[in-house]
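To the structural biology subgroup,

Please find below the input and predicted structure for Glycosyl transferase, family 2, which we are adding to the shared reference set this quarter. The sequence is reproduced verbatim from the submission form. If anyone notices a discrepancy with their own records, reply to this email rather than editing the shared folder directly, so we keep one authoritative version.
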Amino acid sequence: MISIVIPVHNRKKFTRNCLLSLERQTVHEHNIIVVDDGSTDGTGEMLEHEFPEVTVITGNGNLFWTAAVNLGIRHALVAGADYVMTLNNDTIAAVDFMEKMLYRSAEEPDALLGALDIDFGTLKPYYGGEVTHQVWNTSRYLLQELEEKDWKGLHEVSLFPGRGLLIPRVVFEAIGLFEEEKLPHYMADYDFTVLARRNGFKVYCNYDAHLFTYPEEGGDHKIRKKKSLRNYYNHLFSIKGGGNLRNFTIYTLRNSPAGLVPMHLIKGYVQRVFGYLIH
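Predicted structure (tokenized):
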């Protein structure tokens, strides 16, 4: 059985549409756990009345992504889940999404599988995983390198975000849960997949499974959209800032080869401090 863990904080409309897309799946070998972290927009009431079959765990509003996901994962593992999928509420699963994930998971039962992201606004693929260069700490985006005829099947990647990430139980038993204390919001998903690979588990993007997303709804996208000194500060220091220097430092110390840490830190600091101003 697959348990799908969805952390939410307000954005009731997104949560409803996400859950409706999961109801419409061609296969139903899954249950759903929503971690409602202190929503104040009626999300709890909506879940109770419209989706009574969904397990709802309530937080106090201070969990952020990582602790909320971990709370749901613990519940799923205690209940006996063989796989856990972490999913964001601002996603809509294609009708055969779970079918395609299960099919490829049967081929690679111990691997972590992500899905091909489709921009809901343009209906064009926009993210299909990354391959990183260990020395230079740069990423190659596979979707930009592959020809369209190759947008199918499994493609091995170096890391993957937590939206639509299928994780076998054996991975949690080997490496534990996401790092919620040091990486409470951003980068915990990348950190987890990198750690999984270091422990012998492969990570793939399943190009057959499509997940429609809203790139503009990301917290850092909104910070970047309107340039200001306040948003610049939030980009570098806010818990939801994609350029958060603390998170990047912790991630680098945890995942870069020891001899390359200074170079990776300097390069990353320059990208984050000046990248906001350029893009």
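Summary notes: The longest helix spans residues 261-278. The chain has two domains: 2-217, 220-278.

Regards,
Lab coordination
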